[in-house]
């Protein structure tokens, strides 16, 4: 497909967007609306800060379109729009052309991803109104995990829940994981279908995925994006009896516990900061809570790497991506400490070297290649959008 795809990644409190030229597979322009609903909200279009105070997603998207109109480039060449949708449930395991019925289905799945799907839907609605004549394609975070076998996606709960209520592990960050695991195989110079990797997507949300021969076989997030690793504001794994315990001893309601585990836990809950840079700053200044939060974060990642090593049997690559995984050498060091018996370690000098490029950070000749691969969810969404439209 030639032409241009406008990709919208509408998150719970942000909108990321990029205009991609499909002939050259390059981004022509892009930006970010951050902290929607807060006083410090802002739109940064192609590196230039152009708007403050964005009340909600609808306003944010309108500001994005206005920024293109005012500062360029023109959106006249757009031939399709690609939308990131976090939860596709059991229904969507491939990208799909959006119509009213698909919109309704995404709405029905929303209870499974309450932080994400409603925002994704809002983006779709505003964009469909703004570009009524163009095809809109939904690309799902869950889709890549459709290959996880039953023994890894089934919860040991009453089978009626599994059969009738859609209770199972779905997994997320699939678009990112597909992109970086393919890039990792290319960097190793091996066919994608022959490479086993453990992908650590460490951003605001964080997940680990075991990829066997290019297919996801297990992942740390579950029915919702709350399970698994420690995240900025999400707890990751806790004892499933915790909500009932809090109800009993603290009289907390289920909705309050759910909000606390999603928005007031993780790094933020443990040390008062959810931005990884701030957590390190606190720890370096002697803050014990921040130090502990980092230890918990690192230990959790190592435990998942160990588990997925066992699941895969043989691992060719460990791949770090996401805002934290790409930028924090200290987190990568923490996350690989003590794993040398598994052949997993980072070379201090390689790991510390800053770069925006995909690169090897393990020592020469290491048994497992440790890589940093910057993710590009927007390019992957644009490519999947184009492929979906070509297949008709
Ligand atoms: N140089 C850095 N060192 C440590 N953490 C960083 C650095 N740069 C960005 N981050 C972290 O990346 C996280 C955001 O990751 P990102 O993948 O962009 O998030 P999102 O899930 O919103 O897409 C923030 O916690 C931020 O602190
Ligand atoms: C699914 C998920 O956690 O996404 P994000 O990291 O963008 O919050
Ligand atoms: Mg993200």
Automatic annotation (TrEMBL):
- Pathway the protein takes part in: Metabolic intermediate biosynthesis; acetyl-CoA biosynthesis; acetyl-CoA from acetate: step 1/2
* Active-site residues per Swiss-Prot or TrEMBL entry: 141
Q: Which GO terms describe its biological process?
A: acetate metabolic process; acetyl-CoA biosynthetic process
Q: Which UniProt keywords apply?
A: ATP-binding, Cytoplasm, Kinase, Magnesium, Metal-binding, Nucleotide-binding, Transferase
What are its E.C. numbers?
2.7.2.1
Necessary cofactors: Mg(2+); Mn(2+)
User: Where on this chain does ATP bind?
Assistant: 16, 201-205, 275-277, 323-327
| Annotated InterPro entries | Ac/propionate_kinase (IPR004372), Aliphatic_acid_kin_short-chain (IPR000890), Aliphatic_acid_kinase_CS (IPR023865), ATPase_NBD (IPR043129)
Asked if the keyword Signal belongs to this entry, the reply reads no
- Reactions it catalyzes: acetate + ATP = acetyl phosphate + ADP
User: Which Pfam families does this one have?
Assistant: Acetate_kinase
Q: Which GO terms describe its cellular component?
A: cytoplasm
Q: Which NCBIfam families does the record cross-reference, listed alphabetically?
A: ackA (TIGR00016)
Q: Which family does it belong to?
A: Belongs to the acetokinase family.
Give the matching HAMAP family: Acetate_kinase (MF_00020)
Q: What is this protein called?
A: Acetate kinase
Which source organism does the UniProt entry give? Microbispora cellulosiformans
Q: What gene makes this protein?
A: ackA
């Amino acid at each position: 497909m030639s032409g241009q795809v406008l990709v919208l990644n509408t998150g719970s409190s942000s909108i990321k967007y990029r205009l991609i030229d499909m002939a050259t597979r390059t981004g022509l322009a892009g930006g970010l609306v951050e902290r929607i609903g807060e006083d410090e909200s802002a739109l940064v279009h192609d590196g230039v800060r152009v708007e403050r105070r964005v009340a909600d997603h609808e306003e944010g998207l309108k500001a994005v379109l206005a920024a293109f109109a005012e500062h360029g480039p023109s959106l006249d060449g757009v031939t399709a729009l690609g939308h990131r949708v976090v939860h596709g449930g059991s229904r969507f395991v491939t990208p799909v052309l959006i119509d009213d019925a698909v919109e309704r289905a995404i709405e029905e799945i929303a209870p499974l991803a309450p932080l994400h799907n409603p925002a994704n839907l809002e983006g779709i609605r505003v964009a469909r109104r703004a570009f009524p004549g163009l095809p809109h394609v939904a690309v799902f975070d869950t889709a890549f995990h459709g290959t996880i076998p039953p023994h890894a996606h089934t919860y040991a709960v009453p089978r009626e829940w599994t059969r009738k209520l859609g209770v199972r592990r779905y997994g997320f960050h699939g678009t990112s994981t597909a992109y970086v695991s393919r890039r990792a195989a290319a960097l190793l110079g091996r066919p994608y279908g022959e490479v086993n990797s453990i992908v650590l997507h460490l951003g605001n949300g964080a997940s680990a995925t075991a990829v066997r021969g290019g297919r996801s076989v297990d992942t740390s997030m579950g029915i919702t994006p709350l399970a698994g690793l420690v995240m900025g504001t999400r707890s990751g794994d806790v004892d499933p009896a915790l909500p009932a315990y809090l109800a009993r001893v603290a009289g907390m309601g289920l909705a309050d516990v759910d909000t606390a585990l999603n928005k007031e836990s993780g790094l933020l809950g443990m040390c008062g900061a959810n931005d990884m840079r701030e957590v390190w700053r606190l720890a370096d200044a002697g803050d014990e809570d921040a130090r502990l939060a980092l230890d918990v974060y690192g230990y959790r990642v190592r435990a998942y790497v160990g588990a997925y090593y066992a699941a895969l049997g043989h691992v060719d690559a460990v791949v770090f991506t996401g805002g934290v995984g790409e930028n924090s050498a200290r987190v990568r060091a923490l996350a690989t400490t003590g794993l040398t018996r598994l052949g997993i370690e980072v070379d201090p000098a390689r790991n510390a070297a800053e770069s925006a490029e995909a690169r090897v950070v393990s020592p020469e000749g290491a048994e497992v290649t440790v890589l940093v691969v910057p993710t590009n969810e927007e390019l992957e969404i644009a490519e999947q959008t184009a492929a979906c439209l070509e297949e008709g």
